[in-house]
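task queued by scheduler; priority normal; single chain, no ligands, no partner chains; default sampling; output format set to structure tokens
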Amino acid sequence: MRKSKPKKRVLLPDPKFNDILVTRFINNLMWDGKKSVAYSVFYTALDKVEAKLQERGIDVWKKALNNIMPSVEVKARRVGGATFQIPMEVPADRKVAVGMKWMIDYSRRRNEKSMSDKLANEIIAASKGEGAAVKKREDTHKMAEANKAFSHFKVS
């Protein structure tokens, strides 16, 4: 166990939308420290979303992220030799982090040509409540619902 919690790092807001949430997303999207590439992929994806839906790209992205974020998840806990999946409420910070990771992961698995196309189409699908990332959230919720009987085993 750790002696103390690590300090939260202060993130600077992104240059275009002046939003810290966008910076967190871009940091997750980035590969090999190539932040400028991640910025261009994200901004191009939002431009494509705007072109397809005639809505502000950042608003569609935030709506999509809200549709992906889980509210409950299961955590494994050993009780007397058996491992139980215990449903837990997801903390607000983790909700956002998990939602972003799922959106990026499932966009990378799509079959479009460029990463900006993949991300744009995943954002559009998620904003409509469709897509693989939304399905992942629903599966997580179903798993938590199925294991509701074990909720009295609290995870410390």
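post-processing summary
- The chain has one domain: 20-150.
- The mean pLDDT is 92.
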